[in-house]
Amino acid sequence: MIGRRRGIPGACVPGLLCLLIGLLGPLPFARAEAPSGQSVTEAPNRVSTESGDESAQSKPRSHRGIEVINIVGQKRDNGAEDWVDIRSQNQPEGDGAEVLREIPGFALIRQGGIGSDPVFRGLGGSRLNVLIDGVPYAGACNHAMDPPTAYVNPGEFSELIILRGPQSVKNAGSITGAVDFKRSPVVFDEPGSQIFATGVVGSFGLREFSSDVAFGNANGYLRLSGGKDKSNDYLDGDRNPVFSRYNRWNGRAALGWTPSPDTLLEASGEMSNGQMANAT
User: Fold this and answer.
1) Higher pLDDT, 16 or 40
2) Which of 6, 108, 192, 198 is at a distance of 20 to 30 A from 144, taking alpha carbons?
3) Phi and psi at residue 219, in whole multiples of 5°?
4) pLDDT tens per residue across span 2-39
5) From the DSSP assignment, how many helices (H) and strands (E) are in the chain?
6) How far apart are CA 127 and CA 165, in angstroms?
7) How far apart are CA 252 and CA 226, in angstroms?
């Protein structure tokens, strides 16, 4: 004997549900009344209000008792070269390495009392080319005790070109990059002069001065630049002198001829000397 069970076929269930929804109507939505001047957004089981003066989703001033600080930064240009205006830096700089210290990615290795060897992204020495007016310079002595940036008096230069990486073919053998300290060109439309000078005075007899002076006319110019840095021994907390004095100077003279606006012929000569006392 086979028993049969009566019921509603499974295929009829969706049809009955549709009929039930049609008789009862759509499901109710949550509704809220807002004061005048505010808008109400309707959504199933969700209510949000927004005022014209203050948003409900404004950034919190604190989170779990910790003050929220918003930091806004500017994206750096991803170009291969960067340009830095040296003369706009409102701080004393003893040599070219002090200029590089303030640029992201650079670090300095102290070499004696007044010199520093620049390192860019962990690489330095011969892997970072240092140029002055387009001419490559190398360090002197063992372990670059006189790094190439020691020959740069920032007061004599106007701009710095930074090459990040080996993308350019202008400087052969650039592995980590190159830095080029440049002097601004001298241009006279009529007889005149250009003068730039800077100086720093500090404790323990610190004196740092540099200048860049040019005289000329539309046909040419005479440019004189140089600097002098000196300091006495440092005194420790017990007023005992520490062997750290130094004295150095440099001078440069250039004679330029400008027969046309697009032509420049320049002859220049430069001398420098210095002494440094190192406690080590």
Assistant:
1) 16
2) 198
3) -90, -20
4) 444 444 454 555 566 656 555 555 544 444 444 444 44
5) 2, 19
6) 10
7) 6
Strand partners, 273: 249
Residue with tokens 């073919």: 169
CA atoms in the 13 A half-sphere facing the CB of 98: 16
48 has pLDDT over 70: no
79: number of Cβ within 10 Å: 9
Q: Label the pairing between strands 220-231 and 234-235.
A: unpaired
Percent above pLDDT 90 for the chain: 13
Region 237-255 average pLDDT: 89
User: pLDDT per residue over 101-149, tens digit each?
Assistant: 888 888 888 876 677 888 888 888 778 888 888 888 887 776 667 788 8
Contacts of 138-144 with C-beta under 8 Å, sequence gap 24+, read: 143/111, 144/111, 144/117
What CA–CA distance (Å, rounded) separates 159 from 143? 28
Q: Which tokens sit at 63? A: 């989170």
CA atoms within 13 A on the CB side of 58: 11
Whether the predicted model's global pTM rises above the 0.70 cut = no
At 208 the pLDDT is: 87
Helices (H), ranges, the chain: 13-24, 96-101
**Would you state the torsion angle of the CA atoms of residues 232, 237, 242, 247, taken in this order, to the nearest 10 degrees?**
-20
Nearest alpha-carbon partner for 178 in 222, 237, 129, 123: 129
Pair 120, 128: CB distance under 8 Å: yes
Cα gap 179→194, rounded to integer Å: 26
CA distance 18 to 256: 96
Segment (H or E) for 83: strand 81-85
pLDDT score of 215: 94
